[in-house]
């Protein structure tokens, strides 16, 4: 029974890669130094996995930014606009790579970055491959070879990992009309095969091809394409052992494809979908073959200790049907989505030993995989019996812990009534009342909440944590930042102000830290995109709000201005989605508990005199199940959780929500059902294309389509913004239109923020003038 791993966190256990990349981008270290740093992280990771006793260790799971982008470079899928960077120059690979990921704007060159989007239902973002008609691929990057050879030098023959060819195509986008990217498969395969042959020559025995798209709803054509692709690969590299990895969902009807692919090993995610084990073991094609089944039993998406008894049950079932030589043991998916190392959590005041004993991070998950394989083998079982007992005790300690269950919270959730989901009146009545109460001009201007999180602000928080700054001094500095931003917003003429979120480390972690039922880590970083990481807080028990969370700073901010100050909260679905969640109750129940906590916060803000309250739900789309059949159920409770959080206020109080980073067209009626008075939404990168959906559906409430992209330092011109606003006015009634950026400004610098917002105000004045002229 072999053990293997699908991928290890690449950021380094102390975020070494983040620091090195950001220093390189800032011109503070050389390319060679960045490459040296990266090599050290990779070698450390291989060593960690070898020491844990993992038999097949992955390589090429490392990336300087994103592994889908690595694949694009491997096969030379480099869009034309970057070719100027390659032509006639050598040693430009990393420059092109970063240009594709981040864009370039220097020395007269101005090239936009490629699009970035969510990786399945995770908070990880990948770079979307771009395809054109008759595109020819050719091998470009040697990264996969360099890493394989480097590990070999350490004495480790790794299992190189690649995004499989079919998923690579399916995850990308056609950049021109009139063709299907699937038609590019044959040519793409020639490059894959060349690479696989090279790896085989260099001594690779196994390769892992990730085909997570095998867990999605596929058309018949797409299913056939999987068969064709692997038939070709099989034929070209008969000597190489092929492992195809699926994860994040059930194989469902694709099981007929995945079990008959001409490969040596199929990996399945038994955490998300334990029932597929039975389906595969009943599949005569699979049983009769000599293929290996890799059991993904250790959860790569959460931080809870594995329940060995439960996993051993699954393993035994597979061994009984297939024999131990045809079973491998692994985490459910790449450990990219897990924090690195629980041993780094040493502060018992932050994470109590009792709760820490329930957890496993990436490094600990490796041990779990190895121990499970030893326990599943009668020859080694006895030597590991103690680990089984300890595991049993930990699982039992969590199951029966008094820390987890709070009857008041459970009772409150069961006492929720239908009317708790509804505002006092319908939107059209509320709109009239709010018009009167808030006295906002036509096309009100606002921002999404955060202003730049400068190094200074982050340093203040770091010093507070280290005890080098007192709470009082910290608060005084935050107050100063808020006041400064208010004065500035008043000066440039914004209508609905924000306080700037300077006091928040992150829009989810900040709330997690103040809710009971939550713990957080000191070092549990997980990559979100590129060098940006998040430290998801951990929900271990029933969630409750012991005290108001934002009233102090929002109240303070409102006291400093006569204008409207918007209260700023993160919504229940986003808090759920961006936390590590309980696996001992349905997500819906946890969402309702959080929703009640936010509801209390909303009503407290109202009592404190805040008249406009925004409840952000950027992750509502990301939480959507991967299979359409499961959508209705999710959307039902997700929308209700939002409504529950928002509906406790009077008609006069205006509820906003905000969404970004997703496609909303297919869930537009559910967004409408959230019944926020105003939605601000990312649209500028698609030039307001998104609005067609809002128009077709006749979205009834007020809406602020983002007028500029905040992900780039580029300052939009007044005319550009006017153009987008006019486009919006074609489909949105004037009285419903707001003016705002795409998203919060925390990742930006002040210089470009000030310039961009001034232009936004100037553009608004122009369209107001035009509208007034029309009335006269
Ligand atoms: N949770 C979450 N998911 C999200 C988003 C989001 O905002 N939050 N936005 C979307 C895009 N994703 C993003 C994810 C992260 C960041 C981001 O800026 N992350 C920061 C970390 C934010 C943070 O937690 N900061 C802490 C800790 C900062 C820190 O690094 N401190 C230093 C110490 C500082 C010093 O001594 O100089 C350290 O720990 O070493 C704080 O401000 O307090 C980063 O990687 O740089 C931005 C967007 C989608 N998903
Ligand atoms: C990822 S959505 C961000 C919303 C939040 N209020 C902010 O402005 O930062
Ligand atoms: Zn946003």
UniProtKB/TrEMBL annotation:
Residues 3-319 form the Cobalamin-independent methionine synthase MetE N-terminal domain. Gene3D superfamilies: 3.20.20.210. Residues 443-765 form the Cobalamin-independent methionine synthase MetE C-terminal/archaeal domain. Zn(2+) 1 binds at residues 660, 682, 743. The keyword Isomerase does not apply. L-homocysteine binds at residues 448-450, 501, 616. 5-methyltetrahydropteroyltri-L-glutamate binds at residues 15-18, 118, 123, 532-533, 578, 622. It catalyses: 5-methyltetrahydropteroyltri-L-glutamate + L-homocysteine = tetrahydropteroyltri-L-glutamate + L-methionine. Zn(2+) binds at residues 658, 660, 682, 743. L-methionine binds at residues 448-450, 501, 616. This is 5-methyltetrahydropteroyltriglutamate--homocysteine methyltransferase. It comes from Pseudarcicella hirudinis.
